[in-house]
């Protein structure tokens, strides 16, 4: 009678182990992407579902790949973070806000200060705006969106074009028209490129 080890070895020789469903690695599912984001960085929101229902704060960061938001003073917990200016790179437990799902928050209506859903409408001049469904008031984009995360450099770098080269005129329409007329025609009646 064959031993248990020899039976296992013969079984494993028949099929590769990964061909069995219980031995395959699990695939991570990506959440479905939200096409229209009505909540932006700097908006004031209220949590309407979950453990933190009723809390409000300003959106610090929008994580579009995972459909989540980081809201100031909501869902705060201990996180191991480096302290600023620390040379030793020692992590210390600090209170920091954690992310919350996009569907659990609503924007605050600027008129009633209550949570509201958002619609998109067009003004008379054609600009698209966000409108509070509760009151019909226009929700302006936050002013923080006009600022850049990293300020744009005003000094010319090694890859920037010098100003005198930018202002230099390199095209003369009269000379170009004469070169065009001097080109020969091929059998189809099209101009042939001149060879230098």
From TrEMBL:
InterPro entries: KOW, Rib_uL2_dom2, Ribosomal_uL24, Ribosomal_uL24_C, Ribosomal_uL24_CS, Ribosomal_uL24_KOW, Translation_prot_SH3-like_sf. Keywords: Chloroplast, Plastid, Ribonucleoprotein, Ribosomal protein. This is Large ribosomal subunit protein uL24c. Part of the 50S ribosomal subunit. It comes from Pelagomonas calceolata. NCBIfam families: rplX_bact. The lineage of its organism: Eukaryota, Sar, Stramenopiles, Ochrophyta, Pelagophyceae. SMART domains: KOW. Belongs to the universal ribosomal protein uL24 family. One of its GO terms (molecular function) is structural constituent of ribosome.
